[in-house]
């Protein structure tokens, strides 16, 4: 049976010190490298009260890992000392063997660094022991200092009685009981402490006043608005066809219609350009979310496009997309909930928190399915933006009696599409005001999407 050349039982006399020396050198290098990595990790991650991965709203109440760090350093020191003792014992055993005494002396003469290696191991063990002591002192000092700071802040983390923020106390109570109900709160740094509740409610939401000891420059600031760009009429619709995507029969139908009418859209754009002359028009950034085509809403239209299914909605959406594009506006088109969340900046969770950034769109064109999806995932941001940014594609319009939630509830008007409390001009219909048969003055549509 073959054995490794460094196996002690059958090791040739001259090779024993060589193998021992090589193994010890490798071990010392490994220990040294591990010590360096561990020390950098320990000091880099524990000497600060907040780690780089923490949210800016998180206030840490303790420095984690201090006892574990000191314990590992001590174990490293003990291992090095034990190794040095065993090497010394092995050397004495080798030198004390009569048959190999002369060979041992010759090997020692040929490999004089063996004794120096033991001294290096002992020096490393002493250095590790000294490092453990210093780390212990630094961590103790850091814990004492952080404890004093935390005590001072905890005194300032009580819900204020400010008449300008009457809902603050109630919101803090709600957060105490339900902050774990949605992962989005932890995403914004809520960790169950009073301070994290008040920081969230004052800097992410707006129910509490800013805390005086907080560095206000760390709060999220609205980015500067982009410079205005003039909208220029377009006659080439190739890029629009790319934006519309593919993969659904409904989208393929809409693209075919748009491509077939390209010449008419170009002619209409030329006529309108001559009519407006040099009038400046701001280019709008517009999100178009076709909610009824999302998988979450069922998308019952796409499978029936080639089987005699209804095409009116797709005709309407195809013409709206072509109109907005020809007018020179910037478009983003989504037909899935995941795309909608990505474009809006929805935080991870169940939709109870505001958006992670200001809404990057001037307008949002959607339908009732998309409206419901935005309400579920935009949190408080939906109430903030719904009455100024949203346009609802509502084929036949919605009577104000059904749109006004309080009035509809009081009079028992029940519908799956009402109660949105929008301005009637936010509903985009196929008809001009007063054109709906049987409702000459009750339906308020806005025909601006038919401007061409």
From TrEMBL:
It is a single-pass type II membrane protein. Residues 184-431 form the Glycosyltransferase family 18 catalytic domain. One of its GO terms (cellular component) is Golgi membrane. It comes from the Eukaryota. Keywords: Glycoprotein, Glycosyltransferase, Golgi apparatus, Membrane, Signal-anchor, Transferase, Transmembrane, Transmembrane helix. InterPro entries: GT18_cat, MGAT5_Glycosyltransferase. It catalyses: N(4)-{beta-D-GlcNAc-(1->2)-[beta-D-GlcNAc-(1->4)]-alpha-D-Man-(1->3)-[beta-D-GlcNAc-(1->2)-alpha-D-Man-(1->6)]-beta-D-Man-(1->4)-beta-D-GlcNAc-(1->4)-beta-D-GlcNAc}-L-asparaginyl-[protein] + UDP-N-acetyl-alpha-D-glucosamine = N(4)-{beta-D-GlcNAc-(1->2)-[beta-D-GlcNAc-(1->4)]-alpha-D-Man-(1->3)-[beta-D-GlcNAc-(1->2)-[beta-D-GlcNAc-(1->6)]-alpha-D-Man-(1->6)]-beta-D-Man-(1->4)-beta-D-GlcNAc-(1->4)-beta-D-GlcNAc}-L-asparaginyl-[protein] + UDP + H(+). GO terms for molecular function: alpha-1,6-mannosylglycoprotein 6-beta-N-acetylglucosaminyltransferase activity. Transmembrane segments: none annotated. Pfam families: Glyco_transf_18. Its EC number is 2.4.1.155. It is found in: Golgi apparatus membrane. The keyword Transmembrane helix applies. Pathway: Protein modification; protein glycosylation. The keyword Lyase does not apply. GO terms for biological process: protein N-linked glycosylation. Its main location: Golgi. Belongs to the glycosyltransferase 18 family. This is alpha-1,6-mannosyl-glycoprotein 6-beta-N-acetylglucosaminyltransferase.
